[in-house]
Amino acid sequence: MQAQASQSFxxxxxxxxxxxxxxxxxxxxxxxxFIALGYIMFVNPNILAAAGVPKExxxxxxxxxxxLSTMMMGxxxxxxxxxxxxxxxxxxxAYYVCGVLGLHWTVALGAVFFSGLxxxxxxxxxxxxxxxxxxxxxLRVAISVGIGLFIAFVGLKGTGLIVSDPATFITLGSVxxxxxxxxxxxxxxxxxxxxxxxxxxILIGIIATTVLSMILGYSPVPQSFSDVISTSLPHMGETxxxxxxxxxxxxxxxxIIFTFTVVELFDNMGTLIGLTNKAKLVKKxxxxxxxxxxxxxxxxxxxFSAVFGTSTVTSYIESAAGIAAGGKTGLTAVxxxxxFLVSLLFAPLIGLVPGFATAPSLILxxxxxxxxxxxxDFTDFTEGxxxxxxxxMMPLTSSIANGFAFGFISYALMKxxxxxxxxxxxxxxxxxxxxxxxxxxxx
Length: 443
Prior knowledge:
Blueprint: H1 2-14, H2 16-19, H3 23-37, H4 40-49, H5 55-77, E1 83-85, H6 89-100, H7 105-124, H8 127-133, H9 137-159, E2 162-165, E3 169-172, H10 178-195, H11 201-216, H12 245-251, H13 253-278, H14 291-308, E4 313-315, H15 319-324, H16 330-350, H17 355-370, H18 381-397, H19 400-417, H20 426-442
Antiparallel strand pairs: 1-4, 2-3
Helix pairs in contact: 3-16, 4-5, 4-6, 5-14, 5-16, 7-12, 7-13, 7-14, 9-13, 9-17, 9-18, 9-19, 10-11, 10-17, 11-17, 12-13, 18-19, 19-20
């Protein structure tokens, strides 16, 4: 009886029936997203440690901010989207702000705090929403496709199928390499399961690849209790509340704060547009459901990421893996959040899932998102070229924001120079100008 009441509450709160999903599907989707995203718990602390942030505190702050911000996204916005410290933004934090500029990591946290505050102001004043609503339909679709290619590119690198090459930049890796062969096994297995409409196929593929890897001796097998459960929980005492707000302000709002803000604004915007399209959260008139709540969550999450002691939090494209597994509501995000909290205990066990086991899911998600390309109108070159640049620049520059920049700027120029200036809204011009300034500042 109690279980039925609990399920009934979840049905009502997350509108499961209305969205055409179930508790079981949402939980499986949450597990899928978490496994695809779990690497952040190990990668982000290592990057922050390069900036001088105490590693144990960085581990704790990474997990706590991911758990709390993802919980807020699920409960407040009812989105199947997970949040965590953003890749790229953490590298900018550690290697440029703290490395090249030589600023202390506490000052960098102060800059993250100001960017979050600015996000919140732009969201409450509906400026961020106006920017998103001003994006032409073709560019919206191109963003989704570009993110799909970017995800697939990351996945292909993770499998070892593509590697760097000094002559051609990238080339085919060795398919005889055991890890690559195992990843290809996972790719084919998951693809077949998806073709047969097997529920939770992505999760099954990841688990099967991991287990096979352990059997063959290419992944470590738990040998003791300490390999499964941490004997002492990581804590963030050395980073909590250590942000230097005065230092960040004195350094200059138009430098690091501006860059943090611009990159995060459009990285998150691109990710949300792509994910909400895939999750069917876009209404017939193009309006995105609960967009205000999602953007407020992102802004508040960024502020708290600075307080906790980690780089900017953002929506994660890996959420597409959970969406592809059937996730449509905030219950997916709540599941991810709870798993993050549990991971404080089971961090060693989570670390046993190799990257090549999760990489195939990214390739498959990219393939699914690529299907949207048929909705782009390439017959009008003023629409087609900006859409193409949006798509191609994301994977080739490893940046969603760069795809935005070239797409927006080329759209404004193509329309205006082709005698269609009325096709460019004032907001599009302002955003394009901001991107141009940011590109030149980074040059």
